[in-house]
Design a protein that fits this description.
Helix content: 25-40%
Largest sheet: 11 strands, mixed
Order of helices and strands: EHHEHEHEHEHEHHHHEHEEEEHEHEEEHE
Shape: elongated
Oligomer: single chain
CATH topology of the largest domain: Rossmann fold
Distance between the termini: 55 Å
Radius of gyration: 24 Å
Strand content: 15-25%
CATH architecture of the largest domain: 3-Layer(aba) Sandwich
Structural class: alpha/beta
CATH class of the largest domain: Alpha Beta
């Protein structure tokens, strides 16, 4: 029984998990495939002792060894968009199929990589690039292939979800919750990519591309993070019947791609609102299967490594049965992939949560309401706290309004002498 041979670049958190799964679960993998997956060569700058023990005789002295004729599938797990891109393109030119978890690379250069793979008749597996162990890429490319995808709403960053959950249930400030997430390993020492929404934007670019047959890049995704969310906002949202989540949203609207990442007020009975801690949740709305929901851990060594190994197994089958490119790399054949216009965030029409910090004096609300009214923004409810302090929070919950109008109104309001700081605006999911 001839095996399919794998070369692995990088044995960090995910790479170590891949080594462990290929070793510990070799029997179940063999039984499901009918042949072996052999980890032939591994290259990395350093190895943990327990992983090194499993790799005796397999450690390559250079990355070039992973391109040898005996290697069938090359796995890239080093991240970044420079050397990783060069490595993957070279592997493809050498007629090697590729597996990667590199969301940043695919969100920027995916179309180029997929095009090169198509030219060379090899596969690219990237399930692990979005939501770790949740099989959302395969679901969209295969299980939902007969459906028009209407929208995706997703929590795709476990760090932010953990922080917001801790703020809600343990009454922590943002800074306290972030430090707790770092202490428990849910956040990096430099959490910028997570808390500013950049990581989520990479993932939503990939999901939008394969959902709609488009070539969406991360820089086209409107992106906001959670750093301005306070415990006060969490409490007010709860009082209004909502939870605050960092949502990624993708949909087609009037022939344009609406793709964005930002804090969102989600009704408390929604499955996304109920997804807590480091878990991810993805809700896919289609025309035929209505709504499907996928929940699981979106990061971590073994959940992400599980997705990587599943891709290795899929591609190994294609190699064995000479069925490369059986499923289009971008879910659509390249002649059906379009480049649509990206919907401007200013074109949105929805409800808004607005938190003002105002002077505690008579007439402030009427002045704010007057400006909002000038821009056709109707107030649904107001929460005003009289704390006996000079500056107090004022919460305004609006009916549906044009985002462009809301921003213009806020620009005027923020110049008032009764306003202390930039207004916090959170979009509300229920009216979309």
């Amino acid at each position: 029984m001839e095996s399919v041979k794998v070369g692995l670049l990088g044995v960090g958190t995910v790479g170590s998990g891949v080594v462990k799964i290929l070793h510990d679960n070799a029997e179940i993998i063999r039984n499901r495939l009918g042949f072996d997956i052999e980890l032939k060569k591994v290259y990395a700058l350093s190895f943990k002792d327990d992983v090194k023990e499993l790799l005796k005789g397999k450690i390559a002295s250079t990355a070039e060894e992973l391109f040898s004729d005996e290697i069938d599938i090359v796995v890239e797990l080093i991240g970044g968009t420079t050397y990783a891109k060069e490595f993957i393109l070279k592997a493809i030119e050498k007629k090697k199929s590729v597996v990667t978890a590199n969301k940043a690379l695919l969100a920027e250069y995916g179309y180029e990589i997929f095009s090169k793979a198509f030219e060379n008749r090899v596969d690219v597996g990237y399930e692990a690039s979005v939501a770790g162990g949740i099989p959302i890429v395969k679901a969209i490319k295969e299980s939902l292939a007969a459906n028009n995808i209407k929208s995706i709403k997703a929590i795709v960053n476990g760090t932010c979800n953990y922080i917001l959950t801790e703020m809600l249930y343990n009454q922590m400030s943002f800074d306290e919750a972030l430090k707790d997430a770092q202490k428990k390993g849910f956040a990096e020492a430099d959490p910028t990519f997570d808390i500013e929404g950049i990581d989520s934007a990479h993932k939503m670019a990939i999901l939008a591309s394969i959902s709609f047959g488009d070539n969406v890049k991360a820089k086209e995704v409107h992106t906001e993070g959670i750093t301005r969310i306070t415990l006060l906002d969490i409490k007010f949202a709860e009082e209004l019947g909502y939870r605050i989540k960092l949502l990624g949203i993708a949909r087609l609207l009037d022939g344009k791609v609406d793709v964005r990442v930002h804090p969102t007020m989600v009704k408390k009975d929604d499955v996304l609102a109920k997804t807590d801690g480091e878990f991810n949740a993805i809700k896919v709305q289609t025309d035929m299967d209505d709504e499907t929901v996928y929940i699981g851990k979106g990061a971590g060594s073994l959940p992400t490594a599980s997705a990587v190994v599943a891709d290795i197994m899929d591609i190994a089958r294609n190699i064995k049965y000479n069925s490369h490119l059986r499923v289009p790399l971008m879910a659509f054949p390249f002649n059906f992939v379009k480049k649509r216009e990206i919907l401007s965030i200013d074109e949105l029409d929805m409800s808004y949560y607005l938190r003002f910090t105002v002077k505690d004096q008579a007439g402030v609300l009427s002045r704010i309401a007057g400006v909002l009214g000038d821009y056709n923004i109707s107030i649904k409810s107001v929460i005003q706290l009289n704390k006996g302090e000079y500056w107090v929070p004022l919460i305004v919950f609006t009916h549906r309004a044009k985002e462009k109008d809301v921003k213009q109104a806020l620009a005027i309001i923020e110049k008032m002498d009764v306003i202390k700081e930039k207004v916090l605006m959170i979009r509300v999911d229920n009216d979309e």
